[in-house]
Design goal:
Blueprint lengths: L11 H6 L40 H8 L8 E5 L3 E8 L10 E6 L6 E8 L3 H10 L9 H5 L9 E3 L17 E3 L7 H27 L6 E4 L6 H11 L3 E3 L5 H13 L18 E3 L5 H17 L5
Keywords: Kinase, Transferase
GO molecular function, one term: glycerol kinase activity
Pathway: Polyol metabolism; glycerol degradation via glycerol kinase pathway; sn-glycerol 3-phosphate from glycerol: step 1/1
Length: 311
């Protein structure tokens, strides 16, 4: 929070702004993500004396685990919320479209930067169907319920339970269902719930492309909701590019292991990692036209505008 993205040192202006007494406050040293000597060793247990050689935040680790090593690579983690990271290269890109700028990782003294966008409600919307509405008895059954109907039946569900995060930043928006008729079934609402996360992902990716000037070729995915084939196919349809899901979804742990391994020479170049976690991957390709996707997103955008101002 207090680091200057350009110098990778603590920003004196920020520290002054928050009136920190630097004679009393001792901030940790800023170091690379992957380093043999910076982090110390484990002190207890069966791994005692084993060095800690890599440290990454969870979303940066997932980007590394998805091998997002080149500009234009992006990943989305579908958990309770959603978190997208988009690799923009070796210079920070300051967003003008509602995103955060961050350091993705630094393995060799040449930091790589990313744009980040977050969705407040993703997997938690499935829990809402389960716990609040009683539509399903397990979150894993949401796709099965959604597949009982062919489409959303005209229903749009803006899952703004706590406002909308990136790229909208509407804190006065609230969850709203549109398009309900006497023929609306549980399956329509279940499908609209999955679509809500996919629409917000599309909005963030469009903002990322505008900020970076780079077109996304494919989206790497992980997290619990990515287990839903229906959700991932919907995502591919809406963003009009392939969605790639690895068989092993623990990409955050893999990214942390990669950072640690680089420091001790397990890998020396990113090229050596190209075949890691590729066996059994699933690719979802768009099945609708870009025009159809645009029409669906236009309806979503209309619903977003109508859900504002409830506070």
């Amino acid at each position: 929070m207090f680091m200057n993205l350009y110098t990778l040192e603590y920003d004196e202006q920020l520290l002054d702004f928050f009136r920190f007494d630097m004679d009393k406050l001792h901030l940790p040293k800023i170091v690379r993500s992957s380093d043999r000597k910076s982090f110390g060793t484990l002190t207890t247990g069966i791994l005692k004396e084993v060095p800690i050689t890599g440290v990454l935040g969870d979303q940066s680790a997932a980007l590394v685990g998805q091998k997002g090593f080149t500009p234009g690579r992006a990943k989305n983690t579908y958990g309770t919320g959603c978190f997208l990271l988009y690799h923009v290269g070796d210079k920070p890109v300051i967003s003008t479209h509602g995103l955060l700028s961050t350091v993705a990782y630094d393995f060799d003294g040449k930091p790589q930067y990313a744009l980040e966008g977050s969705i407040a409600v993703a997997g938690s919307s499935i829990k809402f169907l389960q716990n609040n509405l009683g539509f399903i008895d397990s979150s894993t059954k949401v796709s099965q319920l959604a597949e009982t109907v062919e489409d959303n039946g005209g229903v749009t569900f803006v899952t703004a339970f706590s406002g909308l995060f990136a790229p909208y930043w509407y804190d006065d928006a609230r969850g709203t269902l549109f398009g309900i008729t006497a023929y609306t079934q549980k399956g329509h609402i279940a499908r609209a719930t999955l679509e809500a996360t996919c629409f917000q992902t599309k909005a963030i990716l469009e903002a990322m492309e505008k900020d970076s000037g780079k077109k996304l070729a494919e989206l790497a995915v992980d997290g619990g909701m990515s287990n839903s084939d229906l959700c991932m196919q919907t995502q591919a349809d809406l963003i009009s590019i392939p969605v790639e899901r690895p068989r092993m979804l623990e990409t955050t742990a893999l990214g942390a292991a990669i950072a640690a391994g680089f420091a001790v020479g397990v890998w020396e170049t990113f090229d050596k990692l190209k075949n890691i976690n590729t066996a059994g991957k699933t690719e979802f390709r768009p099945k609708i036209t870009k025009e159809e996707s645009k029409e669906k997103f236009s309806r979503w955008s209309k619903a977003v505008e109508m859900c504002k101002g409830w506070l």
